[in-house]
Design a protein that fits this description.
There is one protein chain. It is built from 18 helices and no strands. It is mostly helical. It has one domain. The chain starts with a helix and ends with a helix.
Length: 181
């Protein structure tokens, strides 16, 4: 039985307690996914501890899953939920907070429209941040959407409204103001 130590001791963290190392299973087996392999359950650490942030707590690293697996989308892959990080942390900006990069989702996925793809909402950045100019604020560039998408009319394409910038900003001269043209 792969859970023999737990069964014998009545403690799911017995290996950690006995060895004084939270990564003991990895060290012993040479596999960072050992808990998954042994249990057949990818969320085993959460199930065993009752804490969705157990890996962070055990390792002291919020990016532990990425470090251990070598995959920045590991939480999504393991859980089958693209909003897993938000669900686990209760923060919609968790990826930004954890990485220190506001464009982390783009960098990690290689897709500038990743937030839209993941959420199914073209206004996801606005919804998440509460700011309609979030892309500008995050990048420091008012033409960020154009640069990211390669499409100068991206806001119109995304929203289906040619006056989207006016609607979002409440200023009819917003495009002129932003571009100086």
């Amino acid at each position: 039985r792969s859970d023999a130590l737990t069964v014998c001791t009545g403690r799911s963290d017995a290996l950690t307690v006995y060895t004084g190392r939270s990564d003991a299973l990895t060290v012993c087996t040479g596999r960072s996914d050992a808990l998954t392999v042994y249990t057949g359950c990818s969320d085993a650490l959460t199930v065993y501890t009752g804490r969705s942030d157990a890996l962070t707590v055990c390792t002291g690293r919020s990016d532990a899953l990425t470090v251990y697996t070598g995959r920045c989308d590991a939480l999504t892959v393991y859980t089958g939920r693209s909003d897993a990080l938000t669900d686990c942390t209760g923060r919609s900006d968790a990826l930004t907070v954890y990485t220190g990069r506001s464009d982390a989702l783009t960098v990690y996925t290689g897709r500038s429209d990743a937030l839209t793809v993941y959420t199914g909402r073209s206004d996801a950045l606005t919804v998440c941040t509460g700011r309609s100019d979030a892309l500008t604020v995050c990048t420091g560039r008012s033409d960020a959407l154009t640069i990211c998408t390669g499409c100068s009319d991206a806001l119109t394409v995304y929203t289906g409204r040619s006056d989207a910038l006016t609607v979002y900003t409440g200023r009819s001269d917003a495009l002129t103001d932003c571009t100086g043209r």
